Amino acid sequence: MELFNSLLKDHLSKWALVWFGFLFWGSIFSAFLIMFFQNISHSYLYVLGYFLGIIFGIFSKINKWSWIN
What we know:
By secondary structure, the protein is mainly α. It has helices spanning 2-36, 42-62.
C-alpha cells in the first residue's frame, strides 16, 4: 500500500496540470460548446470539450504554466 501511495503522489505531482486541464477546463469547454452549438449531438461536444481540456493541460505542462503558486 505504501508503494501505491508513493506512486500516486509522484504521478500527481508530475501530471497535476494535465489532470486539472482535463477535468476543470474540459468541463468548462464542454458546457461552452453545448451552450453555443445546440443542434449537434451532446456526446460529441462532451468529447470535444474534454479533448480540448486535456490538450490545454498538456500545453500548460509543456510551458510550465501554473495556476497554483
